[in-house]
Design brief:
Length: 381
């Protein structure tokens, strides 16, 4: 079996070499001729898989993306050609949920928002939205879910209507980019919606840039009473509109899903799809490659005068502080080169459950309960 895989898939060679000839390629360098006699094409979101790229693909049986989103793949064309395709649904849901939690922790600890009273409006209650609701449950933060397709399909959770979602203190977007007619999401946040938001609200986009009408966003941010905005995704990546950056609170170069666990699980899913293609049982698991959860300890966490919630939010920020990514991105001039470079050389970021909190004085019971619920099982030394 001949496999071509995008080099940005971590450990792809370790997972795929056993199938035969597995050869990596740098993002942006794959040509149609490279796909002659290739059986499996494995990509991340930076390779556009369409009729042009597959022009010479004479025996391609599977296209697998190691990402949750698959708007870079022309699935209709693949179906017409009888080529099977898969995505890595949910692989990085926890990572994106923790990214949003890190935003919320920064907002609470800098008095931009009070998480004791705030309500978070979650747009899209799929893998990411559900993971985020689990984190918010752990911290007893209020939230509302919005997901008409799931609601229509009979999901039994309680869903809110659009008007009550855009009235929330935080609105966070977790929908796929859909341009068709069935519940489209392209420009879901347009000038009319933006006009209804105010300076007390926080808008977060960690799904796809095109879900927000960026020109309308820029106009709104230049007008009075504008909401605070956090963006991980942009129109036209990596050549983003840099003039937007001074207007937004936190900006990151599409790394919300880039935890170690999230990226590796993407590769694992591709491996499983290749196993299925050749009718074999997967033998490798994530545990073969990732350190056990309690490998990393956090620095001392003092207790007393602070509320349990603030203590836990500080523990969350010691694991992952999005403001460091924002700083690195802006210091790197946030241009096309910096955008691509930072994504390629992103720091090692393990998820919350890969850490254990070590406290040097007894923690309040409420903080212990929250940390346990986040999988960070604290111990006092
Ligand atoms: N920034 C990142 O690093 C990153 C990482 C992972 C995923 N993503 C993006 O986030 C998206 C969501 O990820 P996921 O894993 O939760 O996907 P998912 O498919 O599990 O969930 C998406 C949910 O959105 C809902 N939805 C679709 N159209 C809607 C609409 N018009 N209004 C409200 N809800 C709608 C769907 O019913 C579904 O439940 C992905 O498609 C991807 O584009 C970005
Ligand atoms: O859809 C996803 O899974 C994420 O957006 C993912 O992080 C994007 O893939 P990448 O560009 O990192 O290959």
């Amino acid at each position: 079996m001949k496999i071509r895989f995008e080099n940005s898939m971590p450990l792809a060679a370790d997972y795929l070499n056993a199938f035969g000839s597995a050869e990596g390629f740098e993002s942006g360098t794959l040509t149609p001729e490279d796909l002659v006699d290739v059986d499996v094409l494995a990509v991340r979101s930076t390779t556009k898989v369409n009729a042009d790229l597959l022009n010479c693909a004479n025996r391609l049986a599977l296209v697998a993306t190691a990402t949750a989103g698959y708007n870079h793949i022309d699935t209709q064309y693949l179906q017409q050609q009888g080529i099977y395709w898969t995505s890595a649904a949910g692989c990085n849901a926890q990572a994106v949920a923790e990214y949003v939690l890190s935003v919320l922790a920064n907002a609470h600890l800098s008095n931009k928002l009070d998480l004791h009273t705030a309500t978070v409006g979650i747009v899209g209650a799929g893998h990411v939205g559900t993971a985020l609701s689990g984190l918010l449950d752990a911290l007893s933060v209020r939230y509302k879910l919005y997901d008409p397709p799931l609601q229509e399909a009979g999901d039994t959770r309680t869903f809110a209507d659009w008007q009550s979602i855009i009235a929330c203190d935080v609105i966070t977007l977790h929908v796929p980019l859909i341009t068709g007619e069935y519940f489209p999401t392209e420009h879901m946040i347009d000038a009319a919606v933006l006009a209804q938001l105010n300076a007390q609200q926080l808008l977060i986009n960690a799904c796809r840039g095109e879900v927000i009408d960026e020109a309308a966003l820029k106009n709104r941010l230049l007008s009075e009473n504008a909401p605070t905005v956090v963006l991980d995704v942009f129109n036209n990546e990596p050549g983003i509109d840099q003039t937007l950056l001074p207007l937004i609170w936190l900006a990151t170069p599409h790394i919300a899903g880039h935890s170690i666990e999230g990226k590796l699980l993407g590769t694992q899913r591709v491996y499983e799809a290749v196993c299925e293609l050749q009718g074999s049982t997967p033998e490798l698991t994530l545990d073969d490659f990732i350190a056990p959860p309690d490998a990393v300890e956090l620095p001392a966490l003092d207790s007393s005068p602070e509320s349990a919630l603030s203590l836990v939010l500080k523990a969350i920020l010691s694991v992952y502080d999005i403001s460091e990514d924002d700083r690195d991105f802006r210091q790197g001039l946030a241009d096309q080169v910096a955008f691509t470079f930072m994504r390629k050389h992103y720091r090692v970021r393990r998820e919350l459950a890969g850490h254990q909190v070590v406290a040097h004085s007894p923690l309040p019971q409420a903080a212990i309960a929250m940390l346990n619920a986040l999988g960070m099982h604290p111990k006092t030394v």
